[in-house]
Design a protein that fits this description.
Helix content is about 65%, strand content about 0%. By secondary structure, the chain is mostly helical. It is globular.
């Protein structure tokens, strides 16, 4: 695929989006940690906010993937080179986290099946409408099954959406956002609602269609691509970061107040998530920046993928080795969950430093042959290149 270079006109560094990646990963982490502490091995009960936070965090990553891959698209790139960069980014971390999860599971004496092990190893678990297979060995890995479909579909989606006339991009933005709602309505009304999943008011089939089923999440990925083109073509409206954030907060409150159903799992936050991403990116591109563009948030964002993929086996190990007690108040459980972030961040930093970063630097791009090598051209201070933002994508 030959990619257009709309990104070269203005600054392509998006440090705030890197920082926001940690917020999304933290939302997933805190939900899992809170449930781990409060349940401590007991049956799942209705826990609205942890589930809602997890749904919103994953949805943010899916929209962000489409946005950042579009902004960082390289001129004269090929599909194979693009896929190589993305696989080098996610597969090594996945294999390490999967191995850790398997070892912890065996150490804890829990029973496992081939259905849990094999599909999750090959990142195919999201294609199965079976809760044990979907969860696999390392629960968050199901979303990587979805990301793989994104990467395979991106060349075609990018070329198709790049042909949309700029003045029509907002219509497509609304269409993809409406598509998430339409899919939710179909799932809620056309599929059987019983038996319900533990802690939710929807059946396995309803949940599967709107949440883990990879083709369904392509709507959010495409929404991210269209949002990026809106920003790059100068069609973004004057909606600042505070206003966009308030819209997303309102959607989250709506999700928290309503039961967890197929209608509320994804659709309420898809559109405001895209608005927040566009507003933050616009602030970075204009040089205004946000509170998330400093070194601390950037570092947290850099280790966020490692945190996302390795936090579950870390929590499982801590639960089985030291336990969290029982009978805690909601406040105490939340504080314990926050404390668990420290060991999870340590493991994440090790994974990022020892595996992800060195392999990405070494293998993301093919090494040029001697005939391909040319003298490096110096760039002035402040010059940004598309590759600088590529690592923002999960």
């Amino acid at each position: 695929m030959a990619l257009a270079t709309e990104t070269t006109a203005t600054n392509t560094r998006l440090p705030s989006l890197t920082g926001l990646r940690f917020i999304a990963a933290f939302a997933v982490f805190i939900g899992h940690a809170y449930l781990t502490v409060t349940l401590n091995g007991s049956p799942v009960e209705s826990q609205n906010w942890p589930i809602t936070f997890g749904f919103a965090g994953v949805g943010f990553f899916f929209v962000l993937s489409g946005f950042v891959l579009t902004v960082s698209a390289r001129a004269q790139d090929t599909s194979l080179r693009f896929l190589r960069r993305r696989l080098v980014k996610i597969v090594p971390n996945h294999l390490v986290a999967w191995t850790l999860a398997l070892l912890v599971t065996l150490w804890a004496g829990a029973s496992i099946t081939t259905g849990q092990v094999v599909p999750s190893l090959f990142l195919a678990n999201a294609w199965f409408a079976d809760i044990l297979i979907m969860r696999g060995i390392n629960v968050p890995s199901w979303s990587l099954s979805v990301e793989l479909i994104f990467y395979l579909a991106f060349p075609a989606l990018y070329l198709g959406i790049s042909r949309i006339r700029p003045e029509r991009l907002w219509w497509w933005f609304g269409g993809f956002a409406l598509g998430t709602l339409t899919l939710a309505v179909i799932s809620h009304t056309a599929l059987p609602g019983q038996p319900q999943l533990p802690g939710m008011h929807m059946s396995l089939w309803q949940n599967w269609l709107v949440y883990p089923f990879p083709p369904s999440r392509l709507l959010e990925f495409a929404l991210g691509i269209v949002t990026a083109r809106i920003v790059l073509t100068g069609r973004w409206i004057r909606l600042g970061v505070p206003a966009a954030t308030l819209l997303l907060a309102a959607a989250l409150v709506l999700q928290l107040l309503l039961p967890v159903t197929a209608l509320t799992a994804v659709a309420p936050t898809a559109l405001p998530t895209a608005l927040v991403i566009a507003a933050v990116a616009t602030a970075d591109r204009s040089g205004r920046g946000t509170i998330f563009d400093n070194r601390v948030w950037t570092w947290l964002g850099e280790v966020s993928f490692a945190l996302y993929i390795v936090h579950y086996p870390t929590l499982y190990f801590l639960q089985e080795s030291v336990g969290f007690g029982s009978g805690h108040s909601a406040t105490t459980s939340f504080l314990i969950s926050l404390l668990l972030l420290l060991p999870a961040l340590l493991v994440s930093w090790l994974l990022y430093s020892l595996v992800e970063r060195p392999l990405v630097r070494r293998w993301s791009n093919p090494r040029p042959s001697r005939s391909d090598k040319v003298p490096a051209q110096r760039q002035g201070p402040g010059v940004a290149v598309p590759e600088a933002v590529a690592e923002t994508a999960q």
